[in-house]
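FAQ: What does the model actually see?

It sees only this:
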Amino acid sequence: MNPRKLVLLNPYQMPTQSPLILGNEDMACWLNGYSALWHPAALWGASGPPVVEVTYDHEQPKPGHVYAVPEAPPLFLPDEWEQKVRAAGAFFFKVTPDRDRTLANLKEALAPPSGDAPERPPEAALLDLPPEKVAPFFGIALGYIVSATLSEAMEHENLLETDAFWQDVQQAVAALGGLPFTRSETAGQPVPRDSYEAPPRYDDYDRAGDFADAGPPAADDSHPQDFEQPPEPTDYAEAAPPEGATELPQEH
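And it is asked to produce this:
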């Protein structure tokens, strides 16, 4: 079975280093399409979080993929692309500026065929989840994309452990739909908070004792070890002024 990949076909990425200005319909389709891919029915069995890619990479649809195709901006796709998607065993749905219409299109695309199948597959129950069960995943979608975008914009490493995070998402979807789930052993497991050892603060260091065990300093032959220090005058008031100096009058 091919792993499911969730793809928003769009020429625009979230702005990072450069500003981006989109029309209302373009931006609405972008947000609706990306968030719809976080519906539990789409997430189940996916190999990773949704991605945004250009149409050039998917002119030949790939099996198992779920494509969100926006109405705006218009995409340049090969002729009979929709038929190729179905033939490849992939899915696609139309993304509109209307959120409810977009979600309805997604459910229709993922719904099992109403043929002579004896019963619906177990994961089909995810399509019937009430809005209050689905809404948290849309919130996670917003947090995920904002965190990734800010990390890239600031040229900062994204510290999210994606493998462990995605295992958590799959486990949450399985719990909602009553589906069997076994956590992958290859996925990175989050480190328990108790196992972290906080580094000592600078104030906690005993600076006098930091180098107590360092031993004696190495000998340095580049400078003499013994030298005579010139004597200091004991009474500066009786010291004779330098030759040629003018004595200033004292104030009384």
